[in-house]
Each structure stands twice: as C-alpha cells, then as structure tokens.
Amino acid sequence: MAGKSGTPAVELDVGERRVRISNPDRVYFPESGATKLDLVEYYLNVGDGIVNALRDRPCMLHRFPKGLAGDKVHQKRLPAGAPDWVPTVRVFFPRYGRHADELCVGELADVIWAVQMSTVEFHPWNSRRADTERPDEWRIDLDPMPDCPWSRVRRVAGVVHEVLDEFGAVGWPKTSGGKGLHVYVRIAPDHGFAEVRRAALAFAHEVERRAPDDVTTTWWRKDRDPKLLFVDYNQNARDHTIAAAYSVRGVPAATVSTPVRWDEIPDIDPRDFTIATVPARYRELGDLHAGIDDAVFDITPLIELADRERLEDPPDDE
Question: Rounded to whole angstroms, how far apart are CA atoms 38 and 18?
Fold first, then answer.
C-alpha cells in the first residue's frame, strides 16, 4: 500500500508487533538526506538503549509531520490512531486543570510506532508510572550560555564527577545532542518534585562554589554571564523534560543525545554523535547506561544541605 506521497509503505516486525511505516522515503533531515525510514532504522539499532531510557515514563513527543522543513509539534497526549497495544499513563497538569494520557514505553515497538507518527525526539519525565509524583531520576543539566566554550563544559563535568563521588552517588553522563551535557543519577522514589529540585539546587551551589569562574546558578537568564555554564537544577521540576539518552534531536545535523564514559569527556566533540555514527558506537560499546537502575542514591544528604543553607525553591519557570 502506498502513502500519500506515492511511496509504498513498509511493514516491520518489531518484537511481537508489526508496525507499518508510511512515507518511508520522506526526507526528515534535509542536510543529510536522512529519511523517515533512516530514523526508524536508527532507533531499531539502539533499541535496548532507548527503551531503557524511556521505560514506564510519561513521555512528551517532539513530532515533525513534514520533517524538519515543516513545523514542530510538542505532543503530550498520545497521537490519535494508536493501536490498542501502545501503553499510556495518565498525568495531571494543575496549571491547566487537565489530564493527558501520555505515551509510556514498555517495548521497542512503542518507540517505532511513535516514529511512524513523525516523532523525532523523546522527552520522558523523571518519574515512572508506578508513582508519577515521585521522581526516581535526578537530572544534572550542564547548560552552556551562548558564549560558553565546550572546554568550560568539560571542566565543569570534572567538578560534577568529583562532587558526586564525594556524596557517594553514581552519575551517568550523556551529551545533550546540543552544546551541553546531562548527568543522570538514579534515586529512590521517596521524595516529591519540590524536594528533588531543592536537592539539585544544593548540588548546583556546591559545584558553583568549587568552580566560580566557570559556573553560574543565577536564576534569571538575563542576569547570567553569557560566558558561563548554568547548572540547570530546574530540569527536576514537575513536567520538565529533556531529551532521553539515545534520542535524536530535531536539528539539521541529526545529532543524538549520547551516553558517554566520564573518561571520554575531555576528548569528545558532541557534534560527532549523529544517527549516522551512533549505531556503530552502540554495537561496539552497548548501552553505557545499562547499569543505572543498579546504582540507587539516597538524596537525603542533599536535602539536608539545602535545609542548612536555607535554600528556597525558585519559581517554576523563567
């Protein structure tokens, strides 16, 4: 059967499911010519990794129905027309007084169906369906300001690693798919979003204290030095999401948010990780975040640090 473009659809067996890919030759990334089917094949190649990053988490989708040349859609609700086997979880948005049934990945076929529905980026919550109000993932977002060089990001990553070691926490770094780095820490789901955010703020202040020439925790963007790196603790606020490990980014170069080893960070260039290069790396190294669920950290010492420093929870948006 052909899609609207006249290109025959492709049917793929993904685990025990069959997923139909319409318009497989539609160009999604004009810079490289990568198509919708290329994107599907990328996610198949990193299947265990992307499922590990998304499993049981409410997930917002960044969809590009016409590829990058068209508009981007930020989709919280599951797109219409989903097969009955695609799982969801219901989450509430107090600001709007509404619920949404979001994709909640359980297997690779769920990911591939979302790509069929023009999803390029996957942005999961840091909590899971068992209790969406209690995060089990603390996210450290090293967000460079416009004039911040990559060398500064690398230096700050070293400080982050040092501080995590001192607290006894295992950090799992990855490129952001842009100019920054993310570090994830698995935590026990014993606290709400506000407490996790305060713990993240206390940690950010400690990193700033040790690297004052490189780091800012100034809340308002307009007040930040454009040469510094912002440790964005607000990524731990409720319903704030960032691209998952192994998520492709909706940018012309089709970069990927890629797990890396700590000892690689001094030498890597995040622009080298794309849908064309990451599958070979994955075949060689496997999922570098595969052990994250086995290294659970108790954030109580960071909450106590926030209490001692009388850190107040900042506004929920900039």
Answer: 18
Residue by residue, pLDDT tens for the chain (318 residues) are 444 556 799 999 999 999 999 999 999 999 999 999 999 999 999 999 999 999 999 999 999 999 999 999 999 999 989 999 999 999 998 877 889 999 999 999 999 999 999 999 999 999 999 999 999 999 999 999 999 999 999 999 999 999 999 999 999 999 999 999 999 999 999 999 999 999 999 999 999 999 999 999 999 999 999 999 999 999 999 989 999 999 999 999 999 999 999 999 999 999 999 999 999 999 999 999 999 999 999 999 999 999 999 887 665 554
φ and ψ at residue 47, rounded to 5 degrees: -55, -50
Pick the CATH number of 137-240+293-308 from 3.40.50.720, 3.40.50.300, 3.40.50.2000, 3.90.920.10: 3.90.920.10
CATH class of 10-132: alpha beta
